[in-house]
Write a structure and sequence with these properties.
Length: about 350
């Protein structure tokens, strides 16, 4: 009888400890609403939770990338808007429209200086930075993309009109290649690599904004530069070098009007570039909304696989608490009777 009673007490103590442990675990669930504390508690739920957390982490990275790109491109868009305004002012005020052959030499020099000032401000704007990086350097955002050397404008060391280096030699990379540079950012489109090792353009976001793709480079069929800054330089120099007579000669006027015509075409190209930047922003806005929806879906999935509802957690606690209380009551009755039997 002593062995039986001793075994009964041990079994009872173990059962009570299990009941108390279950009640304590249920109590913890009412505090944090988690279905498990260790993966071994519920391996399936733990595995699903890990997957959801991994996908949420990736989605948060994509969201951060989109936010950064939106801020950068918004800044670039504002810069281009300002450049557009400068070009508009140059074309609608006395700066260009007054070049009609009737202004005297003194006024022509004033206009020439105004054009030079506008050119210099455009160069400064195209060297704008955001968050420590140059906006319009293409794949190189650590160095100023534009530099004036005398009256010649250079983009990343290459003359925007001739396509050559300062010493007259050919660069290793052409302006056409620089214009087509790509800098891809992962924003959750599912990056894919082509057979040649390049990134599929449809699977990532191209953040590169080469400055010459907006303000032009090279020359047109008439030999006029297509870069707006170079054109402003040409017009300014033509005004300064024209005769001291109050009236421009026919050849001088024809040259300036030819520059003005090319200038307006290049201005239209800049506006097309602005539209492309606006489309980038619209795409990023759409992607941002998509990522927000994905985050909401992942949060909902996480609630399903990792957390209990408050109702279920509280119900479980009361159930385990009842079991624990019942085990104590039953134990009191059984052990008391067994002890009396032993004494008899």
């Amino acid at each position: 009888m002593r062995i039986t009673t001793h075994m009964m007490m041990n079994n009872y103590r173990n059962d009570v400890e299990d009941a108390f442990s279950s009640m304590n675990k249920a109590l913890q669930h009412t505090i944090d609403y988690r279905k498990f504390e260790r993966p071994s508690d519920d391996p399936v739920a733990a595995s699903q939770t890990f997957d959801v957390h991994w996908m949420t982490g990736l989605n948060n990275d994509y969201t951060a990338n989109v936010t950064d790109q939106k801020a950068t491109i918004t800044t670039a868009e504002k810069v281009l808007q300002h450049v557009d305004k400068l070009l508009t002012n140059a074309d609608t005020t006395d700066t260009l429209k007054a070049v009609n052959g009737d202004i005297n030499s003194n006024n022509r020099e004033v206009l020439a200086n105004q054009l030079t000032d506008i050119r210099n401000e455009i160069v400064s704007q195209m060297n704008s930075m955001y968050s420590g990086n140059y906006l319009f350097g293409g794949s190189n955002d650590s160095d100023p993309p534009f530099q004036m050397k005398g009256d010649q404008l250079y983009y990343r060391g290459i003359n925007v009109d001739t396509g050559k280096l300062e010493d007259g030699s050919k660069p290793k990379i052409t302006l056409d290649q620089l214009t087509n540079e790509k800098t891809y950012v992962d924003i959750g489109l599912g990056i894919k690599v082509n057979k040649d090792g390049s990134i599929n353009a449809q699977s990532a976001f191209d953040s590169a904004m080469p400055g010459i793709s907006y303000i032009g480079y090279g020359v047109d069929a008439d030999g006029n530069p297509k870069n707006v800054c170079s054109l402003l330089t040409k017009i300014s120099n033509a005004l300064k070098s024209s005769s001291n007579e109050d009236t421009l000669s026919t050849s001088e006027l024809n040259n300036i009007q030819s520059y003005i015509s090319t200038f307006r075409n290049s201005h239209d190209d800049l506006r097309n570039g602005q539209s492309a930047v606006g489309q980038k922003l619209q795409f990023l806005d759409s992607t941002s909304n998509y990522l927000t929806d994905v985050n909401l879906n992942l949060a909902s999935k996480d609630n399903e696989v990792e957390f209990l509802s408050p109702y279920d957690a509280i119900e479980s606690f009361y159930s385990q608490s009842y079991c624990y209380s019942s085990s104590l009551k039953v134990g009191n009755q059984v052990l008391q009777q067994s002890l009396m039997d032993y004494l008899k």
